[in-house]
């Protein structure tokens, strides 16, 4: 029997998807690729394959899951299997440098960024930045490695302190700090390569913005004032000039499902700074809006399977 095979390394993130599969009667099987083996000469099983590998797998003890996933996807694609979020999508998931290069090909503005390996070169690269800048990991997720600096001296102190944490791939990014008028970013969700909805994400408490992680926190609301607002809010009737470019970008790069994050500066200029191909959804925001990302993914894959 043909199935949907879900490739991943974090069982907590797949629970909502599997519940939707069961709800609408989609046969599926999970492939947890924190370990495993494949015989390249053996034909893969019949069905379709959904890659949900995450750039932050190493934070869960699955250091080589992305590399192994790359091998599995190459095997599947060599046998002509249909893979959603394919090998090219995995490349973008694992490298913000690759993301930015691909986004620029579609005239999608990204923050000015430098990449460096080693503390001396991180500091040297930062000297090209005037004013505030941030550092972040090239392979990351959930805001890993994001630090804000007002001057090079502060960066130097950080690099030589126990608090410095190198990116798992050794590449640190130095990037212009985009000062927004208000503390939020916009995350645009795409299913089947098409825009589904946009969610406004409060960043006043920092940049660890994974919706699935946030919904695990007991108090999911910002504890400010007597009328707290939720951290994640779906924006009704959202429209933006970048949406058609995002869809073209996704199609050209083998990405079927994604969340793309943008921020606007004080002058209203939008900069795209992250493409997450292992997208998750916030249940409170979806309940309030009456739209459900995992259900739409399950429906899309059901149609593709049949």
UniProtKB/TrEMBL annotation:
Keywords: ATP-binding, Ligase, Nucleotide-binding. InterPro entries: ATP-grasp (IPR011761), ATP-grasp_RimK-type (IPR013651). GO terms for molecular function: ATP binding; metal ion binding; ribosomal S6-glutamic acid ligase activity. The keyword Ligase applies. The keyword ATP-binding applies. This is Alpha-L-glutamate ligase. It comes from Fictibacillus aquaticus. GO terms for cellular component: cytoplasm.
């Amino acid at each position: 029997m043909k199935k949907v095979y879900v490739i991943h390394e974090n069982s907590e993130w797949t629970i909502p998807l599997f519940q939707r599969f069961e709800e609408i009667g989609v046969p599926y099987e999970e492939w947890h690729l924190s370990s495993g083996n494949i015989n390249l000469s053996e034909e893969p099983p019949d069905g379709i394959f959904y890659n949900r590998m995450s750039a932050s797998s190493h934070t869960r003890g699955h250091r080589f899951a992305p590399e192994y996933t790359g091998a599995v996807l190459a095997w599947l694609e060599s046998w002509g299997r249909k893979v959603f979020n394919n090998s090219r999508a995995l490349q973008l998931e694992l490298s913000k440098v690759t993301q930015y290069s691909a986004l620029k090909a579609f005239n999608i503005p990204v923050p000015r960024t430098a990449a460096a390996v080693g503390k001396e070169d991180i500091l040297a690269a930062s000297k090209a930045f005037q004013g505030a800048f941030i550092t972040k990991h090239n392979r990351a997720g959930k805001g890993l490695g994001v630090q804000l600096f007002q001057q090079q001296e502060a960066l130097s102190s950080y690099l030589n302190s126990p608090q410095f944490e190198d990116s798992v791939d050794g590449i640190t990014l130095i990037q212009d700090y985009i000062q927004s008028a208000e503390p939020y970013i916009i995350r645009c969700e795409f299913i089947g390569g098409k825009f589904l909805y946009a969610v406004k994400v409060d960043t006043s408490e920092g940049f660890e913005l994974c919706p699935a992680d946030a919904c695990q926190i007991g108090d999911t609301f910002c504890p400010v004032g007597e009328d707290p607002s939720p951290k994640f809010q779906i924006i009704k009737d959202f429209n933006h000039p970048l949406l058609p470019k995002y869809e073209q970008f996704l199609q050209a790069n083998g990405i079927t499902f994604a969340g793309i994050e943008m921020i606007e500066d004080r002058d209203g200029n939008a900069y795209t700074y992250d493409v997450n191909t292992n997208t998750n959804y916030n249940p409170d925001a979806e309940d309030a809006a009456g739209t459900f990302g995992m259900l739409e993914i399950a429906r899309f894959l059901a149609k593709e399977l049949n």
